[in-house]
Specification:
Blueprint (H helix, E strand, L loop, with lengths): L1 E4 L2 E4 L15 E4 L4 E3 H4 L4 E5 L6 H16 L4 E6 L3 H11 L4 E4 L4 H5 L3 E2 L4 E2 L2 E5 L5 E6 L9 H9 L3
Length: 163
Amino acid sequence: MKITRKGQVIDVPGNQPGEGEVAPDFALQDLQDATISLASLKGQPTIISIIPDIDTRVCAIQTKRFNQEASQLAGIHFVTISNNTKEEQANWCGQEGVDMTMVHDPENVFGEAYSIYMPELGRYARSIFVLDQDSVIRYREIVLEMSHEPDYTQAIEAAKRLV
């Protein structure tokens, strides 16, 4: 797959999982060192928000928006994943007052499993995956222009339909 970053074409190698497929397994740590895995998210719908770098403007907007939505919607897991370090995520969350589940993956385990890692940039492609209670992907968006925000409404509506 190819996306752009302000017009520059960037390769996102591999086959990204699609709607109707069981989401690839993962197990990573959140900011409290608890393990967040696909198995731990089963039982209720989940929005996985993937961002390239927490310390950039659009990623901050995306994370704040889903943090706001998480505080207003019951019965839906909200998880943000980036390949930033734990310290980078914790510092940003502390400054911005964000308290949603943040998962760090500096080793790119999640990025490789979901084929959203961009080797050229060393970052993830901006993506949203909505999983049902059985971890089947019911909505997927890989944002084609890295500097653009995802379609929050579509992702949230897809998750609400699963509650």
